[in-house]
C-alpha cells in the first residue's frame, strides 16, 4: 500500500492528475499523521474539516480533467498568513480570537491553484526568533534527534529533551521534515526560511524581495520580510514559488514582472556558471564539520562544471548589527497597531483610561522577545538616536547591497554554509545572552538586507547524525539560476536521510 505522505509534492501533483489516487486519500493520510505527531507541536490550528472539504472539491475537478497546478495537494500554512475566517495568531497571545475576513495574496494564489490547507503552523511570535521557542503556543520540536539519543522522549504528551527546528518558521520546517504536509509556506526576515530548513534536512527558498506579495502577511519588518516555501526537494520549491509569486497591486513593494516557469530550468546543470566563495564567511570558531561540508560543496560544483571564484564581501561583518537595528525599528512601528481596541486581546476595558488599556493589553499580549525588539526599535527611532543608529544602519545596508552588486559582476551565484551549527537543544540558548541566539542568522541576514534570493539545500549530516545545509545566494530576480545551482547541489549531495519516527 502506498504511503502518500512519503511522496514529494511533484509526485503527488502528477499522481493526482493521472488519477493514481485521490486527494481525499492523500489528505486523510496527512491528517492521521498530524494527529499522531501532536507532541511535535508543529501546528497551532489543524483544519481537518476544511482540508477534507477542499480535497472533495479537488477530486471532483480532477475527475473531469480540470484543476490548477496544485490541485488536491495538501499544504501547511505558517500562522503568519491571514486565512479567511480561520484563526490567525502570529503565535502571539495578543491576536487571540482573530479570524480575518480576508485572505493573504499568497494563500489566495495557492488555493486558487487547488492546494488543500491542512492547518496553520506554529512559529516564533511575530516571526521573532531563531529557535521557535518564543511562541505563545509552546516550543516546536525538531523531528530529528542525535544518533543514539534515547533521552529525547514523550512524557505526558510532551517532548522531553528535544532539539530546535530553527525559527521563525520552525512549525513549517518540522512539519515538512516529519511528513505532516507535502510542503509549507514560510517567511524569511533574516534567515527564517533557510535556517530552519538547514536544521531539519529540508529545502528552504527565500525569493527576491518583491517577488512574492506581502499583502495579508502579519508584518514584522516590512523592508526585510519575504514569503517563500519550505519543501522536501528543489523541484518542489520551484513548483511552490511559481504558484506563490506574481504581481499584486495591493502590495506597493511587489514587482510587476513575469513569473518564469522555474521547474523548466531544473536539470540544466551549472556548467559554465561562476560560483563565488566569500572568504569573510569563514568565521572564527566555525565547526570543522561546517568548513568541511562547505569545501565539499565547492568540489561538487566544480565537478559539475562550474568555475569557482574566490571573492571578498568585507561588509559582511556589519550585517548582523545593521539587521538588529533596522528590523527592530520596523517591528516597533508595525506592532504599534496591536492596542486591544479593534481586534485580538483586550485586558482592560476602561473607556476613561485609554492609556491603561494600551499598556495592560500590550504587557499581557506580547512575549519577552517581542518586547525586547520593540524597546530596541523604539530606542533607535527616538529623536536623540535616529541619525546615530537608524539612518547610519540604512547607509551601511546600501553599501552591503552595492558590494553584492559588484560581486555579481564576477560570479553568477555565491556559495556559503547555511548555518554556523546543526540544530541545538531546546532551552540550550533561550535563557543565555540574546546576542548568542542572534548569531544563528550570521550567514543569512545579508540576503535580506540586500533583497537577494537565497536557498538552503540539505547536503549532509554532522557527527551527531543531524542535518547540515549549504546556501546559494543569487542575483535579484534570478531565481532560475539559483534553482539551477540548487538542483545541481542537491543531485551531487544525494541527501536521502530522514528522521526516525520516535514521536509516534
TrEMBL record:
UniProt cross-references to PROSITE patterns, sorted A to Z: AMIDASES (PS00571)
One GO term (biological process): translation
EC nos: 6.3.5.7
Domain of life: Bacteria
Active site per UniProt: 78, 168, 192
Record's keyword terms, sorted: ATP-binding, Ligase, Nucleotide-binding, Protein biosynthesis
Location of the Amidase domain: 25-483
GO cellular component, one term: glutamyl-tRNA(Gln) amidotransferase complex
Molecular functions (GO terms): ATP binding; glutaminyl-tRNA synthase (glutamine-hydrolyzing) activity
InterPro entries: Amidase (IPR000120), Amidase_CS (IPR020556), Amidase_dom (IPR023631), AS_sf (IPR036928), GatA (IPR004412)
PANTHER family: GLUTAMYL-TRNA(GLN) AMIDOTRANSFERASE SUBUNIT A, TRANSAMIDASE
Subunit structure: Heterotrimer of A, B and C subunits.
Record function comment: Allows the formation of correctly charged Gln-tRNA(Gln) through the transamidation of misacylated Glu-tRNA(Gln) in organisms which lack glutaminyl-tRNA synthetase. The reaction takes place in the presence of glutamine and ATP through an activated gamma-phospho-Glu-tRNA(Gln).
Sequence similarity: Belongs to the amidase family. GatA subfamily.
Full protein name: Glutamyl-tRNA(Gln) amidotransferase subunit A
Gene: gatA
Amino acid at each position: 500500500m502506498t504511503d502518500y505522505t512519503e511522496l514529494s509534492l511533484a509526485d503527488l501533483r502528477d499522481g493526482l492528475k493521472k488519477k493514481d489516487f485521490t486527494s481525499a486519500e492523500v489528505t486523510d493520510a496527512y491528517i492521521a499523521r498530524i494527529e499522531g505527531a501532536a507532541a511535535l507541536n508543529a501546528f497551532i490550528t489543524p483544519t481537518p474539516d476544511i482540508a477534507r472539504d477542499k480535497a472533495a472539491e479537488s477530486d471532483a475537478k480532477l475527475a473531469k480533467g480540470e484543476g490548477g497546478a496544485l490541485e488536491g495537494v495538501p499544504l501547511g500554512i505558517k500562522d503568519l498568513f491571514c486565512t479567511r475566517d480561520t484563526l490567525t495568531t502570529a503565535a502571539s497571545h495578543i491576536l487571540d480570537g482573530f479570524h480575518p475576513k480576508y485572505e493573504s495574496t499568497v494563500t489566495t494564489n495557492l488555493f486558487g491553484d487547488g492546494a488543500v490547507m491542512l492547518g496553520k503552523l506554529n512559529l516564533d511570535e511575530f516571526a521573532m526568533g531563531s529557535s521557535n521557542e518564543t511562541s505563545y503556543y509552546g516550543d516546536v520540536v525538531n523531528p530529528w534527534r542525535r544518533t543514539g539519543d534515547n533521552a529525547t522522549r514523550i512524557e505526558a504528551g510532551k517532548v522531553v529533551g528535544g532539539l530546535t527546528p530553527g525559527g521563525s518558521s520552525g512549525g513549517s520546517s518540522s512539519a515538512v521534515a516529519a511528513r505532516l504536509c507535502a510542503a509549507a509556506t514560510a517567511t524569511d526576515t533574516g534567515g527564517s526560511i533557510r535556517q530552519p530548513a538547514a536544521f531539519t534536512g529540508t529545502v528552504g527558498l527565500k525569493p527576491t524581495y518583491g517577488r512574492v506579495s506581502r499583502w495579508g502577511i502579519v508584518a514584522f519588518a516590512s523592508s526585510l520580510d519575504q514569503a517563500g516555501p519550505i519543501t522536501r526537494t528543489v523541484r518542489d520549491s520551484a513548483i511552490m514559488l511559481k504558484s506563490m509569486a506574481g504581481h499584486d497591486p495591493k502590495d506597493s513593494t511587489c514587482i510587476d514582472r513575469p513569473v518564469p516557469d522555474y521547474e523548466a530550468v531544473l536539470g540544466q546543470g551549472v556548467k559554465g556558471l561562476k560560483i563565488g566563495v566569500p572568504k569573510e564567511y569563514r568565521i572564527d570558531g566555525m565547526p570543522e564539520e561546517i568548513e568541511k561540508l562547505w569545501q565539499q560543496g565547492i568540489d561538487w560544483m566544480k565537478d559539475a562544471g562550474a568555475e569557482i571564484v574566490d571573492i571578498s564581501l568585507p561588509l559582511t561583518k556589519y550585517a548582523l548589527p545593521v539587521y538588529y537595528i533596522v528590523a527592530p525599528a520596523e517591528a516597533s512601528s508595525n506592532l504599534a497597531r496591536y492596542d486591544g481596541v479593534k481586534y485580538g486581546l483586550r485586558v482592560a476595558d476602561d473607556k476613561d483610561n485609554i492609556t491603561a488599556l494600551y499598556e495592560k493589553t500590550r504587557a499581557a499580549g506580547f512575549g519577552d522577545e517581542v518586547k525586547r525588539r520593540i524597546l530596541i526599535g523604539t530606542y533607535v527611532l527616538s529623536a536623540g538616536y535616529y541619525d546615530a543608529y537608524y539612518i547610519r544602519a540604512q547607509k551601511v545596508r546600501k553599501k552591503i547591497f552595492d558590494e553584492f552588486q559588484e560581486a555579481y559582476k564576477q560570479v553568477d551565484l555565491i556559495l556559503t554554509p547555511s548555518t554556523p551549527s546543526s540544530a541545538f537543544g531546546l532551552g540550550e540558548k533561550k535563557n543565555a545572552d540574546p546576542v548568542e541566539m542572534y548569531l544563528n542568522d550570521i550567514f543569512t541576514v545579508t540576503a535580506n538586507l540586500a533583497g537577494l534570493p537565497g536557498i538552503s539545500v540539505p547536503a549532509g549530516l554532522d557527527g551527531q547524525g543531524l542535518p547540515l545545509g549549504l546556501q546559494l545566494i543569487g542575483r535579484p530576480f534570478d531565481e532560475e539560476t539559483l534553482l539551477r545551482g540548487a538542483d545541481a547541489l542537491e543531485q551531487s549531495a544525494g541527501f536521502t536521510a530522514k528522521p526516525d519516527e520516535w514521536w509516534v
